[in-house]
Amino acid sequence: MSEKVRAKAQETLALVEEVNAVILPDPVDAAAVVPLAEADAPVGAEIRSRMEEIDMGDTQSIVSFGSAAQAELQEISQAMLADVRNKDVGPAGDSLRNIVTTIRGFSVSELDVRRERSWWEKLLGRAAPFAKFTARFETIQGQIDNITDDLLSHEHTLLKDIKSLDMLYEKTLQFYDELALYIAAGEEKLAELDSTDIPAKEAAVQAAAEADQVMVAQELRDLRAARDDLERRVHDLKLTRQVTMQSLPSIRLVQENDKSLVTKINSTLANTVPLWETQLAQAVTIQRSAEAAAAVRDANDLTNELLTANAKNLRDSNKMIREEMERGVFDIEAVKQANADLIGTIEESLAIADEGKARRAAAEVELKKMEGDLRDTLAAAKARADGTGDTVGISAPR
């Protein structure tokens, strides 16, 4: 990692050791509500001061009895939630968001950034592939520094949460103890009402004049109603104390998880990230060696291909050249074939000449015959012209 990131990691190491050194006190038993009769002087004084907050003639004082103890706790909780977004709370945030969106009339599914995107949204929003594409052009050291910066940011946030949870735990524990005092004060006041105030008011009703008896009876009914309200309020305080008792280990559990995460992040920054850098440096060297070996292999393959191709070409061309060199000017087969063709030509010429002589001799015989026939025919025609035609056949030859 860079020197700047390394310096930040060293700074947070002291904070990690500081938060891990904090030991939170354990609460007392949930049932340990000390009554006024058994309390020591300081606790008894605290119980009496809280009893004085109760005005049986003021309903508001009964309803708000014990609420002052939660003021500081509420301030810390509000401070912790001030900058937290709804999406960072998880399922609890989902429930709250459902309520808000239902009231406002929005569709929760449309506002949920963790939902499965539609094909149209996937088509238009290609953030993940673009991020992968962009990451290809970033330097390795820059990416490691981005990761460590993100881890440091989470670590600082968790350290802040741990300290806030320390304050929340402390105030919750104080609220838990305060509730015990308020419960003791309320129970003591109820006992005082049941044993003193209500019997006295009942006696006053009995002793009142007939004209004032209705008014005094109404005061008795109001006192009894206020007493019942106080009893319900004390019961609510008991329930609140029980829930507060359950929240204390929850706070400690969250703190322990945060501390474990902080320790893990710090270990990652101190040990894992340098190991990444070493392994990535080796990976770069191995990749470059592989690329160089691939280039050498391709060169060797090309050399072998050239050697093989040249050897084959040399063999083929040498064979062709040697064959042509060993041939004569004329191939014997060609001369033999030409001689045979020449003899055949001469024989054909002789045969054609003999045949021509025979045809001419036959033609002469035919010509002589045709000449004789023509002469005889002409002689016969002349005899008819001289009138001797009837006796031509019996005349003596010349």
Structure description:
This protein has helices at residues 3-20, 41-51, 59-63, 71-81, 91-104, 108-111, 119-124, 127-135, 140-207, 210-326, 332-386. The model is unreliable at 390-398 (pLDDT under 50). By secondary structure, the chain is an all-alpha fold. The termini are far apart. The protein contains eleven helices and no strands. Helix 1 packs antiparallel against helix 10, helix 2 (41-51) packs across helix 9 (140-207) and helix 4 runs antiparallel to helix 9.
Please give the structural blueprint.
Layout: H1 3-20, H2 41-51, H3 59-63, H4 71-81, H5 91-104, H6 108-111, H7 119-124, H8 127-135, H9 140-207, H10 210-326, H11 332-386
Class from secondary-structure proportions: mainly alpha
Radius of gyration (CA) equals 64 Å
What pattern of helices and strands is seen along the backbone? HHHHHHHHHHH
Strand content: under 5%
Shape: elongated
Helix content: over 70%
The number of E-state strands comes to 0
In short:
By secondary structure, this protein is mainly alpha-helical.
Properties at a glance:
single chain, 398 residues, mainly alpha, 11 helices, 0% strand, disordered C terminus
